[in-house]
Amino acid sequence: MSCNLFGVEAQIVRIGMVKEALEATVIEGNGWLDSEIEHIYASDLMSDVLAFGKPNSILLTGLASQQAIVSAHVAEFKGVVLVRGKKPRDGSSAFARDHHLVLLSTELDMYDACIRVEKARSGIKLDAGTTPPAPRTDEILLNNEFSIEGSDFARAGMVSTEVKSILKKIGIDPKIIRRVAISTYEGEMNVVMHAIRAKVLLAVTPQLIEVVIHDEGKGIPDIEMAMQEGFTTSTEEQRAMGFGSGMGLANIKRSADELRINSVVGKGTVVQMRFLI
Q1: Among the residues of 23-121, which ranges form H helices?
Q2: Which of 204, 234, 249, 260 could tie 272 with a disulfide, CB 3.0–4.6 Å?
Q3: Which residues contact 92 (CB under 8 A, 6 or more apart)?
Q4: CATH code for the domain of 117
Q5: Angle in degrees, 0-180, between the axes of helices 66-74 and 158-169, rounded to the nearest 10
Q6: 146 & 271 share domain
Q7: Among 161, 37, 174, 30, which residue's Cα sits nearest to residue 99?
């Protein structure tokens, strides 16, 4: 189930209002309940969250794994609400705390939570706050290399999180950072689910950001088919973790200004993404 409760037009509300409407308990982020959000998105499919979720949102989900929290962070969400009384596991609380995400838990199911928030939201009107953009650095030139291990779901998302942090520190436009982070995260998850290992190269110049993911693995027999939304070769276990909906490469294509994929069956795949600054 997925729903964007605020529709096309954003309306500013505070996370504390969501907490009260859902009678939720605060797991992390008591000091950030006054944070303002523009959208609420409900989904258990993290690739859908990355594809369709909007920045300054809060996520309602029944997926109580670290990947839900990492996905929310990569997509520039401000918090996560676990429904059906779910509690965070495998480092979710620590990740939320370290990256300033509000983490809540409610006994309501997804449907009732959506209805509750919509009813509470309809009677509230708050002034939108503005956040000044990060300063641009005129001359940027850096190269970083990261590694990813296949099947390492415990650390999945750490590379894209680090890339996002680096780009913030050097003053890249937040909208570009979000696109880079989503694309890197999708590529990272493809490695974790389907490859043995990979190297990730991040290069930034005054004109563009380039991310290259070079993996060792089984390769992609039909790239054109793999690019189609909904096509997946994921396992039942991977889908149970919220991935494998067939949106990974499609999300990258949607976010990147340039995308090149070269693959050799039985050897591996190179995904090259470019983002114009």
Answers
A1: 46-52, 66-74, 92-98, 110-121
A2: 260
A3: 64, 65, 66, 68, 69, 103
A4: 3.40.1390.20
A5: 30
A6: yes
A7: 161
Integer Rg of the chain from CA: 19
pLDDT at 44: 84
**3-state SS, residue 156:** coil
Last residue of a domain, one of 121, 156, 191: 121
Cα separation, 73 vs 148, in Å, equals: 19
Residue with tokens 């959208």, as numbered in its chain: 39
Q: Say what the pLDDT of residue 51 is.
A: 86
Q: Which residue has the tokens 């009678």?
A: 23
Whether residues 150 and 272 fall in one domain? yes
Q: What is the DSSP string of 169-199?
A: HTT--HHHHHHHHHHHHHHHHHHHHHEEEEE
CA-CA-CA-CA torsion for 227, 273, 43, 244, nearest 10 degrees? 40
Per residue in 213-262, pLDDT (tens digit) is 999 999 988 888 878 766 666 666 666 666 655 567 888 999 999 999 99
Residue 225 class from Cβ within 10 Å (0-12 exposed, 13-18 middle, 19+ buried)? exposed
- Cβ–Cβ under 8 Å, residues 213 and 195: no
